[in-house]
Amino acid sequence: MNFASDNTGPAHPAIMQALVAANAGHAASYGGDDLMAQVRARVRELFEAPEAAVYLVATGTAANALSLATLAQPWETIFCARTAHVHEDEANAPEFFTGGAKLTLVDAPDGRMTAERLRAVIAAQEGRGIHSPKRGPVSVTETTETGTTYGPARLRALLAVARAQGLPVHLDGARLANALAFSGAAPADLTWRAGVDVASLGGTKDGCPGVEIVVLFDPARGEEFEYRRKRAGHLFSKHRYLSAQALAWLEGGLWLDLARRANGAAAHLAGGLRDKGIEIIFPVEANLVFFNAPRALHRHLMAQGADYHLWGGSLDGPDPDEILAARLACDWSADEAMIARFLGLI
Amino acid sequence: MNFASDNTGPAHPAIMQALVAANAGHAASYGGDDLMAQVRARVRELFEAPEAAVYLVATGTAANALSLATLAQPWETIFCARTAHVHEDEANAPEFFTGGAKLTLVDAPDGRMTAERLRAVIAAQEGRGIHSPKRGPVSVTETTETGTTYGPARLRALLAVARAQGLPVHLDGARLANALAFSGAAPADLTWRAGVDVASLGGTKDGCPGVEIVVLFDPARGEEFEYRRKRAGHLFSKHRYLSAQALAWLEGGLWLDLARRANGAAAHLAGGLRDKGIEIIFPVEANLVFFNAPRALHRHLMAQGADYHLWGGSLDGPDPDEILAARLACDWSADEAMIARFLGLI
Amino acid sequence: MNFASDNTGPAHPAIMQALVAANAGHAASYGGDDLMAQVRARVRELFEAPEAAVYLVATGTAANALSLATLAQPWETIFCARTAHVHEDEANAPEFFTGGAKLTLVDAPDGRMTAERLRAVIAAQEGRGIHSPKRGPVSVTETTETGTTYGPARLRALLAVARAQGLPVHLDGARLANALAFSGAAPADLTWRAGVDVASLGGTKDGCPGVEIVVLFDPARGEEFEYRRKRAGHLFSKHRYLSAQALAWLEGGLWLDLARRANGAAAHLAGGLRDKGIEIIFPVEANLVFFNAPRALHRHLMAQGADYHLWGGSLDGPDPDEILAARLACDWSADEAMIARFLGLI
Amino acid sequence: MNFASDNTGPAHPAIMQALVAANAGHAASYGGDDLMAQVRARVRELFEAPEAAVYLVATGTAANALSLATLAQPWETIFCARTAHVHEDEANAPEFFTGGAKLTLVDAPDGRMTAERLRAVIAAQEGRGIHSPKRGPVSVTETTETGTTYGPARLRALLAVARAQGLPVHLDGARLANALAFSGAAPADLTWRAGVDVASLGGTKDGCPGVEIVVLFDPARGEEFEYRRKRAGHLFSKHRYLSAQALAWLEGGLWLDLARRANGAAAHLAGGLRDKGIEIIFPVEANLVFFNAPRALHRHLMAQGADYHLWGGSLDGPDPDEILAARLACDWSADEAMIARFLGLI
Questions:
Q1: D132–chain A nearest CA distance, Å
Q2: What pTM, to 2 d.p., does this model score?
Q3: Most buried among B30, B193, C14, C155, by the most CB within 10 A?
């Protein structure tokens, strides 16, 4: 019963097969492989962005930090949700890659920044001219860290705040597939048509061993991204193994199918928990379920083999009745039996 | 009627005379001058720290950023007040000098962090191991940005939180002289005896053209500081002109006299304002006075030649009755006549 | 006839099978997988270093830059061969990861620094104290970029120069397997017993899709390496796919077999070229062959489908008789037929 | 007899008087002072550059590193003479300020790069695309570190190489005044008319306590420079003391007079040495004299109170007859008596 993360499950077998299939003969290195040309064409088509610059890296932190460094100057500040992965989970990667830009945090109780809050925080970050950091890019996450999604309309409204200030926008799309599966929107609607300049589309949490697609809608940013990727050690020599993952994942809509499966598992889990009177904290719109339960129940579940993370708080506290929040993450492989077993323990 | 900043007034004439006097004949460069040896001895004596490493730089931002870089690793986060100069007024200098460390902000409504708040923020910054920044130094400001002071007991209690976690402590002492003048404490009581590892003692805001003394109580940190100072362009070739300032400023307690004068002027101002029914926002413990007044009054004062800064808000708003906060900064040269003229306008 | 690089060939099938096999069920992420525990144990055994800290990354540039950043301070200079990959082929990655350290170059006509040259360059880099960079680590490459090897005795003699100065040592082992296959030495003899502090053992150029093993012989350096890896985006969430590569590659000495095959192919090529009167530039001790040939011959070979890189110079020059140097790189998959075909064209 | 550096002598009294005179009343901080407006106007007139952005900093390293950071991307390499101050004497400041750019060295036996050498080095730095640093700015020093000058024609010819490649140009003008005094050229002829984008004009080595003028001929670069200066701690709050130095130094051509005096002293020294059969190493075109003499003579001179630096080599060697090079630096205050005394010792 592993709900610890969407990175603890296996890759989809079709992707592993594609890796094996890609392993024949010689191939040009450093992104010059034929498979990458196919990935590029496929991604441009998918995003309705025939000119976009398209790159692959292996980790979400690399995708985010390289994208932010391409958008932000070292003397700027990046606006993001207080819960953003780029702030909380990357050990200062944005600060490192940008050469010392700052992150200015926007409260986002359910994971989503609101236009009002973003506007207010941007407005507050100005009055000192050269003394305080200049306003830099807005970084938004879709699906958010709490499993909620913006959807096209809300995202467009949020990013209009950035556009009005002339600020560029980065989208952390480590779980963009889940948000697209939930809303049914076109990829363009959650990216460039909503005001995004650089987006990632994450394969790693959605059935790949490790690949993230970075899309720069203004191809003029491409050269800088390429130099930054290389000097950060994120340009793969045997690049075909990234390309093959991405291509198989995009093939026939597999990426969306996997995201739908993960979303479905989460919905199933959330429904089951609600049926048992467990409080679900955030709307379940993707593959993450946050719930409240007494410490004693968490202990019981984990003792029986359930693997998941508390969201703050500690299993070791004295009071068995204290309510602790927790996160369940479903990947594409989370099956009925596992979910039923988990729900059965409650 | 210039209350815009404690950096708009003149230097004390004795310090200018010392500059002129230092300008005779040849002197060793890069800190090898005889005056610097005297400064070093005098500072060690003053701080009761016979082994301390002592350096001079010309700006407060240099003093802070170099000190923090010596204490923090790039993958750490620095804890400081939300209002701290290192966060708000240095255009990402700490992020730059540390190679990308983060600043984690502690609410400090009156400018002072409390032990409880600092403890809570440090505690919250931990659970993700390698994924989030490691806990790094605590940076504290004395006098704070709002003109309040910690004083020895409160500072010791606050920094005990850092010591308990094994975190090093930086003290931004751009206005340390004012705090020492207010409390009458020994310099050691507001620095190493309270738990400070590296402190600055600022001359620039207290009557010097531009000199900040940095004291590293552990001399083993000295070599790193020296290399960092040099590669940041902050090692002066004609160093004697920094030394001469510092020496004349320390001579005969001039530095404390000047701080007392500035504090006295602020107390006078605050008293006069209170007498006229104006609300003073923070305890006036140093050379800064924050007060609330209607927009119309601010307009009147500035139209009559008073020079000071609003603390948020804008003179241009529509409502003449809206209450706006403002800051008055007094330097040593703020004289009775100027203050009387200002108060007379209200 | 692809001799363009040792990164254009396929991975060994056994390693692909291991990847597929690793793709079953759930596994702890971020290096907590069981396979990594096995890799760690195997590497420690192989290097006779039971305490060593062992990490995996996906690219050679990441391995080098992270290792150098762990050894060098930003105000230091790194000593390396003028031809070193860290200088020539990493787009300033060492400068980026170290926060601005310098690289000081040592002439190495056949790819190998000599003790005399290294000593002289280190000696020359000193006289200015704080004004010039401090002496930092020595970075050595085994197999060198020109396909020569140091071997244990020569390496020990070279690194004695660093040890005498108290300078730490990094070994770029992107092709260390080839050097070990050539000399028959124990891994410890080409690393810690010769004076190396941090070494990489590269799988990518030796039959893996993309994995580099970093070994820090002083485990106290491990925590810093882990934070640096994370903030550089080089910690893989689905780490099992790095572990599985490394484990299969080490299993049963496959790594050495593959290196021997590649070395054998290069020896065969070099012999064949010599038989045809072609000048071989450097001793062929690993999997690289450098040779001189007239422009016209290079044109002929490439026109017939041979893929390799000139070593300086351009195919487009006017003089068909001009002698141009070129590099042939053999990977484990370079077979007899391909080599025979190539030699047959001459 | 202090010839150790042009930074060991006193400032000119007129400049000290200007400092004292500037110390009256209040003045806007951070460069908003009236004196700075005058400096800006005067510098623009002097350089025949009515649109140029003009800034002041206190050290030559700050001027150089900030300028280079404005011109170079982190993934580029800067071309400069092997003897350049930015390479040898700034403890990696360019690498720090640029975020990790590299310096590629051009041999310059007499301190001057030649167009041929620069062209060859630039040409050699290309072939690897994204793998090696991109070609970045050329940094040239006038007066060079060896006391030679380019003069307008030679400089224009050299920089044509950079222009032909589309590379921007930085001029380290720490001793630009001496070169202008020597050649009689207009400041524009040694800067923008010769192809320079950003130049410094150094006051510190020419009679000021510490001020360097940075001129960006394309004012569009100004905002970036301002942010970089601020976040590097090089924006002075009490800026009037920088402005006052610069203004007094420029007033009535004092800056050129002082440079002429220093140049004259060096010429006198060199002539005297030649008369005594001492070999002068480089053409004496500014205020530096390099000469060869046996170790025994150096020992004698220093024992008698002469203060200067050997140029490589050590006073402590065993052979009294070994010829050692040395540098004599003259500042404006080097008087006849001091020079006569020195020559008398030989």
A1: 9
A2: 0.97
A3: C155
